[in-house]
Amino acid sequence: MEANPKNLRQFEHEKKKYTCKGQKVRQSLQDVADQISKMTLTIEAQAGEEDKLFGSVTAKDIVEAIALQGVEVRQAQVILEEPIKRLGTYEVTVKVHKD
Q: pTM for this structure?
């Protein structure tokens, strides 16, 4: 594309539009992150001796609990080192954006 005044104006317009759209998306995702960071979820599960769960709490269970709070996330966004297999309090990372 030739770098003439018309093409440069068009390029600057597209660049501004792209930047503005990115800022809106980032702000929307920041709002979701703020909502999630304030959440405390309780997931009921049956447990046996020594507070060991009969099953385990997985990323799918966490996604469902978050959805009940009115926030939609994908299972891939929930970062669990391994499924939760004991009763207790846990912090779970939910990655809403690559940054």
A: 0.74
